[in-house]
């Protein structure tokens, strides 16, 4: 065949209308399961009859195995279906259905295809273990997709060309790959493994689906996954968005249709799972029949039926392992697994997810915002409760604002939310940063008349405002302002070793430039939520985290906007906005910062702070309070040009000493002035403001 003939043949195949052949028919006609398959050979729909209705919906064609109602045997119309979601258990053929979807798209209705996997490794594994064996064993695919290892095939492991389209295999961890091309078909494999927000640009599922918008209802998206945790499972959200189809089988005794419900109908003699039977849930029957009876007589005339209205374009299916063909997942094995799971929470999670295809609901892992709000205390924002001895601040950057939280700290890392402020304005302009300067510079006077300043301020440099944050922090390092970013790896310390970010024209690091401090966000969240949960059982005076009644509901909703996903070992967002939680995390980073190290303070250290911050005398500067004046004088001697400023709490104490000096001037009729001493090199000091302890300087 000449070049012209080859070109014309390619064009003809590309513009030829789609064959009117559904995925189920294509599978029986063309799909050959490879030798590596548990049951190699020609695909048989009769082996997994429950997959036929799903393939009909994904084909957009009428289905004889789906009904509008139990007594309505008309063909079910799938013409408007664009998205198909399958919430599935293990070993049911769901992944093979996805392969059939891809095969039919390549051979019978060509168009660009996007296949999305949780990671790049998963994509490569699918290509090697799934796609390549299918291509090799299925003649129709071999004709259209060349071997990636063949010279001149123009194919790679993650990109497959075929007449009329291109198959791209991408990971859900890179937004650019998800948005790069317009596609007609999308395969979303194991969506509960995906990141919830990729590169700060949104959910990868939404990014992928948006690539099909030009095709309207001719586009087809297939998402499948084993579910994970309730309210955090992406496939569960998709299932609830759709029409929630269930697979109805007939009772072998009375013939009435029903779907399998493990907790309602599955019974066996305790300790003997081999006796397991499923009891009919129809009123007036209740007879228990063994697995083989349900999956032979019961499967005759079985059908899918929607149980919800849905959004009109999403067909969602629930398929548990109870429906697996005879020999694949015996009910006796499932019963044995369940008995073992009763005493092992980890096994129970796996059973609920993998066998029942349901979300595990870990009520203890989620904190309700209403519960936290009920514990709010009657102190006003921007006031200092008794016991609050040190102030820190944190800043979260958004495109149109800065959000700031001031936290107070006391013995045993007791924490108070002192203030929560939103500074409106584009962070690329000076205005919001000038407002932040004013906020950080303004002292807050406690009930003892002692003005307290913010000792450290952590500013989030993640997102799109990194350079603005660096520019602000660079000039305020001496004031305790520093840039932070969540650590990429899990289970890192609450605050880690900083890295220098500024470089010279030669690319060398500037050691005294801006520093970036990594924050172990998951570790901090563990600490925060653990404390919140423990506070529920504590008396008011013993609680470790305190909140003002002035805080709005939105603050508490943001504070509890995430929950720990035990099955994935990660924190998942339950709602879009979580700034209050991020701010609390960064305030914990301040508390653990080496300039404060509040977590390392001992009782004597806190007692020394109390002497300065909460002096227990009527008039600190009266003639009867000579001892207190001596303590103040020892904090800082302004007449000495070489006055020593200690690091960590020592510096904080020196600042408090300056404020006490200002307060003394006020008593003398002068206006108070809060000064910030420049940081100097550490030197030995024989007379410190508190008894000399290694804790201040060397821990």
Automatic annotation (TrEMBL):
Domain Terminase large subunit GpA endonuclease: 314-597
Pfam families named in the record: GpA_ATPase (PF05876), GpA_nuclease (PF20454)
GO MF annotations in UniProt: ATP binding; ATP hydrolysis activity; endonuclease activity
Chain residue ranges for the region called Disordered: 137-157, 670-699
Residue ranges constituting the Phage terminase large subunit GpA ATPase domain according to the UniProt record: 37-296
Protein name: Phage terminase large subunit family protein
Organism annotation: Pararobbsia silviterrae
